[in-house]
From TrEMBL:
Top class in the EC scheme: oxidoreductase
Pfam family membership, one: Fer4
Species for this entry: Parvibacter caecicola
Protein name according to UniProt: 2-oxoglutarate ferredoxin oxidoreductase subunit delta
Record domain 4Fe-4S ferredoxin-type: where: 2-31, 40-68
A single GO molecular function term of this UniProt record: 2-oxoglutarate synthase activity
Amino acid sequence: MARVVIDEGFCKGCGLCTDVCPTRILMLDPHRITPKGYHPAICTDEEKCTGCCSCALMCPDCAITVER
């Protein structure tokens, strides 16, 4: 099982990670806003994460780390 770690200090809520996730477990959190004014990405179900790292590779701000 893999774990997706998102550093909200770097996440700008661009949504690229949500588009590329093959299992569709990433989404932008509509209920929270970071101090910089963005809706951060969140992982909705870590048990479904395959550890493919597509989200981390796509993130332009290096805000995502996938731990296996």
